[in-house]
Design a protein that fits this description.
123 residues, mainly beta, seven-stranded mixed β-sheet, four-stranded antiparallel β-sheet, 11 strands, 0% helix
């Protein structure tokens, strides 16, 4: 059984930092893994994705230069370091896996999802 468990969310002031973790179990072979978010009243969007080979990486324009995606293969864990957080980064953040190659940013082809974790940026 494939499980993705997010951790590290919470509330932070604007300009602050958080580091999200996504621990994967039950699956070691996949094409890509990524972070997505959904704010109230908005569609889920891709934040950052990385292929398993790490040859391909994607960042949404809104987070470029502020967020960094990384992986620790020994722990089967993915991270999202979020710096210079803004109120518009407030959302539920999800990690997800795309098992078969279908496009790094193709959210509809990510077929294993975590339960999501809240990130709130507020003063």
């Amino acid at each position: 059984q494939v499980q993705l468990v997010e951790s590290g969310g919470g509330e932070v002031q604007p300009g602050g930092s958080l580091k999200l973790s996504c621990e994967v179990s039950g699956l070691t072979d996949y094409y890509a893994i990524g972070w997505f978010r959904q704010a109230p009243g908005k569609q889920r969007e891709a934040v950052s994705c990385i292929s398993k080979t790490e040859l391909s990486t994607y960042y949404a324009d809104s987070v470029k230069g502020r967020f960094t995606i990384s992986r620790d293969n020994s722990k089967n864990t993915m991270y999202l370091q979020m710096n210079s957080l803004k109120p518009e980064d407030t959302a539920v953040y999800y990690c997800a896996i795309q098992t078969w190659p279908a496009g790094l940013m193709a959210i509809e082809y990510y077929n294993h999802w975590g339960q999501g974790i809240q990130v709130t940026v507020s003063s």
